[in-house]
Specification:
The chain is mainly alpha-helical. It contains twelve helices and no strands. The protein has one domain. About 45% of the residues are buried.
């Protein structure tokens, strides 16, 4: 559901308009803060917007995902047309695996949101950090330092506690949530590695990913959404209005921002750090769930959100300390 630009520390966002970013150095704190804020507002916005679209009667998660990829593709072409970035020829075979993972990530994310409550959806979504750590260790032999595990465990416990009162389990919804964790983990890992191996900035890479993902999802859309003309629940019986069509297109615009911001955050930090940022978004979305969707406010939720934020702060301090140590060792 979104895309991003800039993967180089010695370039500004403006320089991305004329040349590809690289990964020669560490991004500045200001750059990291900017892309994290961009991801925060676009990601939290699209979750609430998608939920409103579903509640308005458009119960077709896979089709909505296809619309998001099309909107992302059109948006990127317009950005390229107006000189925001310069397209680059990439290895389609390498981009395709990321496109398939991205298709699965968005499809199962939308289906999980459609079939589950916002609370359970967020809890399972942010268990992705566990999936990333396990996959990186088993498949890529990259191990997270032990000192970070305590902070991550604190965050995960906080997310689980926050959603305890909202665990409205159902088999299909849980399966979608687990599939989302698997696809999202690979997607996030490959987002960072492919930007480096292909030497492409997020917009250049996403210009390949979005249309490939749209093509990949076409065969499976009828498997998840009802396209039978004889069915009363068919998509053909959905009555478009100015309001609901505008809402759907608005989620498409947010999808462009989300897809770009995912690539930006992971390109400038890491998949694990991206998930840590996501835990802060979880607390915010629970507040939105309380205010907009009528979820009851309970002390357990407050404790869980507080624990989650403590974990985020703890992890952030460890990352800042690790960066300072790396800078000292590099200058010595």
């Amino acid at each position: 559901m979104a895309v991003k630009a800039v993967a180089n520390s010695d370039q500004t966002v403006a320089s991305d308009r004329t040349e590809s970013s690289t990964t020669r150095g560490e991004p500045s704190t200001r750059e990291v803060a900017t892309v994290i804020a961009f991801n925060f507002f676009s990601s939290t916005g699209i979750v609430s917007a998608n939920k409103l679209v579903y509640e308005a009667g458009f119960h077709f998660g896979a089709t909505l995902t296809f619309i998001h990829f099309i909107c992302t593709t059109i948006g990127l072409l317009l950005l390229a047309r107006f000189g925001v970035f310069t397209p680059k020829r990439l290895d389609v075979r390498k981009a395709l695996k990321l496109a398939i993972a991205g298709m699965g990530f968005v499809v199962f994310s939308n289906l999980s949101l459609q079939r589950n409550s916002v609370g359970f959806y967020q809890v399972m979504k942010h268990m992705t950090v566990v999936g990333v750590i396990i996959i990186e260790a088993i498949v890529f032999r990259r191990f997270l330092p032990w000192r970070f595990l305590g902070a991550l465990a604190t965050m995960c416990c906080g997310v689980i506690i926050t959603g305890m009162t909202d665990f409205k389990l159902n088999t299909l919804g849980t399966m979608f949530a687990l599939a989302n964790i698997l696809c999202t983990s690979f997607y996030q890992i490959w987002c960072g590695s492919l930007q480096k191996s292909l030497e492409a900035n997020p917009l250049q890479l996403q210009l390949y990913i979005a249309p490939l993902s749209a093509l990949s999802i076409i065969p499976i859309v009828p498997m998840f959404d009802d396209y039978r003309s004889s069915s009363p629940e068919s998509i053909f019986n959905f009555v478009p209005t100015v309001n609901n069509v505008s809402a759907i297109l608005f989620t498409g615009a947010l999808a462009l921002c989300v897809n770009v911001s995912i690539f930006l955050v992971i390109g400038k930090t890491s998949a694990v750090t991206y998930n840590v940022v996501g835990n802060g978004k979880t607390a915010f979305l629970f507040v939105v769930d309380f205010l907009v969707f009528g979820r009851p406010f309970e002390p357990t939720n407050v404790f869980g959100m507080t624990l989650t934020l403590c974990g985020v702060i703890w992890y952030t301090q460890l990352k800042l300390k690790a960066r300072a140590e790396a800078e000292r060792s590099g200058s010595s």
